[in-house]
Amino acid sequence: GTPLPGREEYLDSEKYQLKERDWNKPGNIKPFLTRLNRARREHPALQSYANIDFIPADNEHILAFHKWSDDGRDHIIVVVNLDPRQRHESNIHLPLDDLGLPHGEDFEVEDVLFEEVYQWRESTNFVSLDPRTKPVHLLKVRKP
Q1: Distance between CA 90 and CA 71 in Å, rounded?
Q2: Going from the N-terminus, what domains does the chain have, and what CATH number goes with each?
Q3: Whole-structure pTM value
């Protein structure tokens, strides 16, 4: 682009262009964003920035963290594949005490974005995330 004299902006910069978008076109992220925003509304744990603890993962391309509501009744585990091109798998290591979970018992986590339920046990659990189909888990902890 051509810079405007005496300014940081560029002539015909995207900053100033209106682009027509087909929000219903196949492959659009509109359905994903709708589910994400619904989860944010329905889960108090996702409504604050002051409540985050990172969870160790065995793969550097996987980021995991735990969020909880002020009253301690809503716990969400977020697991993200940071690589936009490849599937990545990892064990994540949960802080059972912080999650209010007993040691040695099975428990369920529900992916509130994709409406799937997983049976987990103890603190080390496996995740597999493919950026094309499921780049993230938003897991609600179901206490036994």
Answers
A1: 30
A2: 26-142 (2.60.40.1180)
A3: 0.83
